[in-house]
Amino acid sequence: xxxxxxxxxxxxxxxxxxxxxxxxxxxxxxxxxxxxxxxxxxxxxxxxxxxxxxxxxxxxxxxxxxxxxxxxxxxxxxxxxxxxxxxxxxxxxxxxxxxxxxxxxxxxxxxxxxxxxxxxxxxxxxxxxxxxxxxxxxxxxxxxxxxxxxxxxxxxxxxxxxxxxxxxxxxxxxxxxxxxxxxxxxxxxxxxxxxxxxxxxxxxxxxxxxxxxxxxxxxxxxxxxxxxxxxxxxxxxxxx
Length: 240
Hints:
This protein has 240 residues and is mainly alpha-helical. It has helices at residues 11-21, 31-44, 47-51, 54-72, 90-117, 144-160, 175-188, 203-218, and strands spanning 191-193, 222-226, 233-237. It folds into two domains: 11-117, no CATH class; 134-237, Arc Repressor Mutant, subunit A. It starts with 10 loop residues before the first helix and ends with a strand.
C-alpha cells in the first residue's frame, strides 16, 4: 500500500518536488538546501500521518546522516556505516533523484497510453466461415447450356450498347472465318475470355462466333472453363 502525504507518493517524490520548486538543475542541486527544506516539511506534518508513513522518516534519517557527513567533510572511503545507509554522498542522492525522475516520466507515458487504450473495445475472434460465399468451382469441359447462358448475358450487354440511330449494312460472316480468327487469337494467348472475342457486337458476329466455338469444342480443338457459377467463361486451346 502506498500512502500519499500532501499529494506526495513517497520521500523521493517530495525531494524531486523541492528541487523543481527551487528551480534547480537536478544534476547541480544544492544538497544542504534541499535537506533543510525536506526536514522543515517533515516537521510540519502531523505525527499521526508520519506514523503511517515511516518511509518519510527513514529518508529523513538518511538526509540527516548525509548532512552530517557534508558538515564534517567526510569522504566516502572514510565511512564506517555504509551498510546502514544507502545515501552516503551527494552523488548517491542525485542518482536516486535522477532515477526516480526517469520512472516518473515513463509512468506518465504509460498512463497516457492506458487512457487511449480504454477508448477501444475488443472482442474475441469468431469463425466467420459460415458467412463466406461458397463458390462452386467447375473444371474441365462445359456443356452447351452454360455457353447459352453466357450468350444471353452477352446479348444483354449488346442491348445496352445499341445506338439510338443505326444504319443497317449487310456483311456476310462465315463460321470458318470465325474459327480461323479464334485459332489465331488463341495462338497469341494461353486462354481468352469469351467476351474478348468480340470487337463489336452484331447479331451475325455473335451467332457465327457461337457456332464456331461449339464446333471447335466438338472437334476438341478448345476447352471451356469457368471458375465459378455465373463467372467469366475462358477458352483454352487443346495442346495436340
